[in-house]
Design a protein that fits this description.
- The protein is of the alpha+beta class and about 150 residues long.
- It has helices spanning about 1-20, 25-65, 115-150, and strands at about 80-85, 90-100, 100-105.
- A 3-stranded antiparallel beta sheet has the order 1-2-3.
- Helix 1 runs antiparallel to helix 2.
- The longest helix has about 40 residues, at about 115-150.
- The chain is rod-shaped.
Length: about 150
C-alpha cells in the first residue's frame, strides 16, 4: 500500500541526512525533503483519524434506534462511550459522548458485554424488589384477616 511507504521514506531521508555532511550539495535538499515528508505523514495520519472517527459515528448510527435520523453530521466527532449509572433512579444507561452531543440510550451497545451484565443485574434487582413488595402486601393482608377474625370472636 502506498501510504505505508511514507514512513519508510521518512526513515530513509533521516538516515541519508545523518550520513551526509552539512557541506554536501544535497544536504539542504535532503533536509527540505525530510520536512516535507514529515508534513505529508502528519497529514495522512490526521486524515486516517478523521476517517476512523466518521466510521465510528456511522457505526453508532446503525446501532441506535429512535429520535436520531441522522447522527452523522460533518462537524460531529466521537469522543467516548460507556455504561453510566443515572442517579437518583440508579438505572444503568449506555452513553455516547461526541464533541457537541451527549447521548444516553436505554439499550446497550453491540459487543459491550459489561453493559449487558450490568443491565441484567439491574433487572434482577428490580425483580427482587418487586417480590419483596409482594411479600409485604401478603403479610399486611394476613394481618388484616387476623384482625377481622379476632373482631368476630
Amino acid at each position: 500500500m502506498p501510504i505505508q511507504r511514507i514512513p519508510r521514506y521518512e526513515l530513509l531521508l533521516k538516515e541519508l541526512i545523518k550520513r551526509t555532511g552539512p557541506d554536501h550539495l544535497d544536504y539542504k535538499d535532503l533536509k527540505e525533503s525530510y520536512q516535507k515528508i514529515q508534513e505529508v505523514a502528519l497529514y495522512f495520519e490526521e486524515k486516517k483519524k478523521e476517517a476512523d472517527n466518521i466510521s465510528k459515528v456511522m457505526e453508532i448510527q446503525r446501532v441506535i434506534t429512535g429520535k436520531f435520523e441522522n447522527l452523522a453530521v460533518p462537524h460531529r466527532r466521537y469522543v467516548r462511550e460507556g455504561a453510566v449509572l443515572v442517579l437518583p433512579t440508579k438505572k444503568v444507561r449506555f452513553c455516547y459522548l461526541f464533541n457537541d452531543l451527549l447521548l444516553l440510550t436505554k439499550g446497550q451497545s453491540k459487543g459491550n458485554r459489561v453493559f449487558k451484565k450490568e443491565e441484567k443485574k439491574e433487572k434482577e434487582n428490580q425483580k427482587d424488589k418487586e417480590k419483596e413488595k409482594d411479600k409485604e402486601k401478603e403479610k399486611e393482608k394476613d394481618k388484616e384477616k387476623e384482625k377481622e377474625k379476632d373482631k368476630e370472636k
